[in-house]
Design brief:
This protein is of the alpha/beta class. The chain is built from 8 helices and 12 strands. It has 2 domains: 122 residues, 3-Layer(aba) Sandwich (Rossmann fold); 99 residues, Winged helix-like DNA-binding domain superfamily/Winged helix DNA-binding domain (Arc Repressor Mutant, subunit A), CATH 1.10.10.
Length: 234
């Protein structure tokens, strides 16, 4: 079901099987000027993500039938829409898995509405900035990254990337020739309040090198600048 809002308002899909949470979130989002669509299960969420083209999806991990992690995985096959997962305190493993499969952020239940709305606004603001600056393909030598198609071609071969890998490479290529600090990468790729270890970046950089570099052990493009961060060289 879809609510009404002023023209130009952002559309948010909220997915939760608990009616009280669903209605509370819908009420508060509508009060803040958003258009809200709702679903109570994973399969409905996938269908609405395709038909309604929301600007943001908020989805509980624990859903009947198809859970939130699997629904996120399916949505990611055709869309790069930001996804915020709702998780319980004891779902640490699910939290990490959701982020690796394509979720952009998570909010732990119980949460304050102030925190929740701040996450929503920050995620929508970040998406708008990304769309404005990153819609054209970047071709650097034999590497071509196309944000509009979410595609990477390396030496004539199509390479598959997970969402975090893609966004990490995008930030590095947009800032080619300049040092990008680890903190900047955490902010831009994982979110302004991501509290994970910075080792997360090292792991993703290693995965990227295996897909981009001729010799991952002696990288020519994704360079570590010791003590400062990383740099993409043509």
């Amino acid at each position: 079901m879809l609510s009404q809002a002023p023209p130009g308002a952002k559309k948010i899909l909220v997915v939760d099987d608990e009616s009280a949470i669903l209605q509370t979130l819908r009420f508060n989002l509508e009060r803040n000027g958003y258009i809200v669509a709702t679903a109570g299960d994973g399969r409905s969420a996938i269908a609405l993500a395709g038909s309604e083209k929301p600007d943001l999806i908020i989805m509980d991990i624990m859903l009947p039938g198809l859970d939130g992690i699997e629904a996120c995985k399916e949505i990611r096959k055709s869309s790069n829409v930001p996804i915020i997962m709702l998780t319980a305190k004891d779902q640490e493993i699910d939290k990490v898995l959701a982020l690796e499969l394509g979720a952009d952020d998570y909010v732990t239940k119980p949460f304050s509405l102030h925190e929740f709305l701040a996450r929503v606004k920050a995620r929508l603001r970040r998406r708008s900035g990304t769309e404005e600056s990153s819609n054209e393909a970047i071709a650097l030598g034999e590497i071509v990254l196309d944000p509009s198609r979410q595609s990477l071609v390396v030496r004539g071969r199509q390479i598959g990337l997970a969402p975090k890998e893609f966004n990490l490479l995008l930030v590095l290529m947009e800032n080619r020739g300049r040092i990008v600090t680890r903190q900047t990468l955490l902010d831009k790729v994982w979110g302004y309040d991501f509290d994970g270890e910075q080792q997360t970046i090292s792991v993703h950089v290693r995965w990227l090198r295996e897909k981009v570099e001729i010799d991952p052990n002696n990288p020519r493009h994704i360079i570590t600048v010791r003590g400062r961060g990383y740099m993409f060289k043509e």
